[in-house]
Amino acid sequence: MADTAPTPTLGDPLDAALPAWRRAGHRLPVVVSGSPDWALAQGHSLARDNTLWIGPDAPAGVDALLFRRATAALGGESDRVIVNALAGFDPDALGAAAGRVRAGGCLVLLTPPLADWPTRDDAEMARLVPYPFEAGDAGPAYRTRLARILGAAGTRWQVIEHHPLPPVPVPDTPTDHHPTDVTGCADCGSPDQAEAIERIMAVARGRPRRPLVLRSHRGRGKTSALGLAGARVLEAGLGDVLVTAPRREAVAPLFDRLAEATGITPDGDGSLRVDDCRLRFVPPDVLLGQQSGQYARARLLLIDEAAALPAAVLDGLFARFGRCVFATTEHGYEGSGRGFTLRFLPRLEASAVSVHHHWLTTPIRWAAGDPLEALIDRLLLLDADPAESLPDRATATARPPTRLDPLALAADERRLGEWFGLLVAAHYRTTPRDLRQLLDGPASHLWSIESGSATDRAVIATAATQDEGGLPDELAAAVFDGERRLHGHLLPQTLAAHAGWPNWPRLTGRRIQRIAVHPAARRQGTGGELVAAIAATARDEGRDFVGASFGMDDELVAFWAAAGMQVLHLGQHRDHASGSQAVVMAMGLSPAGKAAVERAAAGFVDRLPTRAAGPLRHVEPERLATLLAVTPPRPVPALTHDQHRQLIACARHRHHLDAALDTLRAWLTPALTQPAAQRALEPERRALLIGRMLQLRDETTLAQRFGLAGRRAVEATCREALARLLDALTDQR
């Protein structure tokens, strides 16, 4: 029977136990579960010097961060970190908190009674549920899984209200842990890190287009290695160093280590200088932007958390900077090293002279076998991976696409790991919070295709969708007017507020947030089968449309087009992290949805000449050519006798192209949607015409982009392409 006596003070036994953990180089997980007042009081009693409190209700005099600012904890170290999850749980905050705890310290997680936790109100879910849902509408699957894992036996100190206080566990590794001394590198924490620095220096000193790929798990000193190497490049006078990453905060340790190594105070903008050489952070979208030429003299580009950036962005960075280091965290908070491996590395190997690889495997900030690292990896599924291989004939014997029960999925660790691992590998950015939104979102639906064998099952394909739209007239009008922006409802709000279609928020739809197919099952129709099942179910449930929004990528555009979707909108701004414009594609399911899709698809083509010369002028012309190539043919406007003669004069003679711009721009866009145009012109020729006629790009710039000799070569190539296009469309008629 449970003991109802008051729990003794927790601070004394914890203080007495931690020196042994410090000697072992491990970190102690502590879980305090009980009523809010009791658990909060216990948390306050555990605060000491060098404690960081994350969440609400911090004690006076203790450094504290709210959940939304918890990522600021990355890069620093504390002896104790206390996470208050009594009123709400933020997975991202817990992940950041765990990375903050130094060896010999502890992470304290305050929770409600574990048995009650899944059904309690959680204020943090208000940030994840779409309108009109509230936090209480969220499902219980995610916290049910957390409670099960935290309640199981393991190396942690479990303190429960009204239960006897257990002894603080002793570390599994009783021997003393000492940081490794590295010969020749006083600042290095391991031989792995020292070798990484030498390899980075080899890139800086070496010939271009021989990049280094640096991979590690968390806590292995990857980002610090970049900083130490950057310091050496500056001190050697090799030139400027640029640093980029999805977020400035992600590379804070790099600048800290560089400042320590050089003793130099950063400039006001955070950059560091050694004589005439400078190291600074520049966001990826700026490096890819129109002013990127100002960074051309940089000797070295360090790309941290590269897995969190799309392959197209990494391609662009490598094309602009000859000496690159691509560093990424395997199973990290910023993205998936597995996805980086699957999607980008083959392209890098094909375009580089040679690619060098280095793995950081030795922990630096704590000893191997750290219990806190193992617990956080499992809780947040940071180690989720797709199945290593698929059973023989897996796709041929696969079960039909199935909509999953979140509670059942969360209860099956192997299945959940494979399911989520596929989504992580296929998406450029995944955070721990995403799993919670997928499992518990009240408008979310989860799908899978799995191998049919009962004894050798594996997840072949996965998808997650969210219901959107169906807004009342007044709210739909406010969205169109730009007066309201609701949480969720990405597709209808984008098409109303940015594409100018006022009726879309009233329609009901289902957006495919993520979809992934196992590498061994790709290009076999599996992804299309899953999309078809999602669309059929949405149609049966009365939805008007199904769609997707994604960073512009030629392969993704082709996939969604093959699945029956049409291009409805291309955003004009690059995402700060992805460096790509967002594409919206959809297919109509109901008569109203089909009519809305047809209008928006036609509008995309009709408005493109105006948008291409304005807000889309800086989009790569190849991307616009891709979108037009998958667009159903639009009617080519009938030309007057004079207009037709003018086009002939441009194509076959020397009539000035600019004199015919009005005619060319109105005619070219629908012409490029014709199948005959795809057969007659190579993609680069279509892109050249778009760049010259629609985007009005400078001919000198176009010559450089398309490898032509100069302005005259651009003009001659455009005339030749126009002639072929005219012939093809004439033959088509």
Automatic annotation (TrEMBL):
Domain called N-acetyltransferase: residue spans: 433-590
Coarse class of the protein's main subcellular location: cytoplasm
GO molecular function, one term: tRNA binding
Binding-site residues for acetyl-CoA, renumbered to this chain: I515, A516, V517, E555
Binding site for ATP: Q193, R365
PROSITE patterns: GNAT
Catalytic reaction equation(s): cytidine(34) in elongator tRNA(Met) + acetyl-CoA + ATP + H2O = N(4)-acetylcytidine(34) in elongator tRNA(Met) + ADP + phosphate + CoA + H(+)
Biological-process GO terms, alphabetical: rRNA acetylation involved in maturation of SSU-rRNA; tRNA acetylation; tRNA wobble cytosine modification
UniProt xrefs under HAMAP family: tRNA_acetyltr_TmcA (MF_01886)
General function of this protein: Catalyzes the formation of N(4)-acetylcytidine (ac(4)C) at the wobble position of tRNA(Met), by using acetyl-CoA as an acetyl donor and ATP (or GTP).
Family designation: Belongs to the TmcA family.
This protein's name: tRNA(Met) cytidine acetyltransferase TmcA
Species in which this protein is naturally found: Guyparkeria halophila
Gene label: tmcA
